[in-house]
Input
Amino acid sequence: MLKTLLSATLTATVAATLAFAAPAQAATATGNWPTKPLRFVVPYPAGGPLDTVARAIGEKLRDSLGQPVVVENKPGAGGNLGADFVAKQPADGYTIVMGAVATHAINPTLFTKMPYDPIKDFAPITLVADVPNVLVMHPGKAAELHINNVRDLVEYARKHPGKLDYASGGNGSAGHLSGELFKSMARISMVHIPYNGASPAQLSVLSGQTDLIFDNLASASANIKAGKLKAFAVTTAGRAASFPELPTIAEAGKGLGLEGFDISTWFGVLAPAGTPRDIVDRLNHDIVAILKTDDMKARLARIGAQPAPTTPEQFGALIQRELKKYGQVVKVSGAKVD
Output
C-alpha cells in the first residue's frame, strides 16, 4: 500500500514538474527574450547609409530591449554575403539583418546562383525607409536639346533613338535598372554607360561626358540646388519630402506609358526564417516606434531617406512584389554580374 502511494506521489510530482517546466522553457525561449546582446548585420561597408541607419536604430533598441545591439558589417557579393550569413543563423531573435532592395529583390535575378532564398530563408520584421532616385540631366545638354522635362526627354528620344546615353554605378545597380524600366515603359532607346560606382557615374554627367542619370536623391541634391544638375522627376510613386516641387516620373510622364513607374532604394530589418512570432512582433513594435521619433526622422532626412514603417506582413508582400518587378526588368536588360 505504502509502495503504491509513494509511486503515485512520485508520478504526480514528476507530472507537476513537467507541467511547470514546459512554460518555463517557453518563457526562456521567447518571454524572457532578450537575455544577451543582439547582432545587427549590415551587408555593406561601414559608413554607408544602411550602416548609419542601422547604428542609429541599434542605439535606441538597446534602450528598449535592455541589451546591447552590436552592428556588424559583412559586405561582399552585392550584399549577398551578409544576408546569407544571417539566413543561416539560429532563429532565436539574436541575429537580424538590414536587408535592401538589392539583397532581397534585385540580386536573386541578377546573380546566376544565390546562396539563400529571399522569401523562404527570412522572417520580415519591418521596412525601415526608402530613398528616391531622381532623373537628372546635364543642364547644358538639356538646354542644347531643348529638353525641359520628362515629356521633352521622351519625345526627343523617340525621334532620335540611341542618341541619348545615361550613366549608372554599374550593371544591375538601381540607376541601371531605373533606366531600363524607363526605356521599356516609355518605348525609347538610350545607351547605358556603366561606371564603377555611383560617384564616378554622377561625375560623368556633371562633366558632360554622359547626358543623364537616375541618381540617388541624397547624393544629387547638393548639385541640383547649385544648378549643376537639372532635375526632371523623382522615381518613386510619391513625391519626395525634400523636393516637393519635383513631380514623379509617373506624373510627369502621364500619357507616355510611364504611369505606375516606381523605383526606390529601400531597406528594412529581417530575421532568419522560423524566428518566434512574438520576437518578430516585439522587434517590429520597437523599431516602428523608433522610426516615428523626431530624432530618427531627422537622421533619415539627412541621407535623403523617408521613414516607411510597416507590419511584417506588409514588408513581406513588398518583397514579393519587388522580386517580380525587378526580375522582369533584369531579364529585359540582360544584366548579369557573374
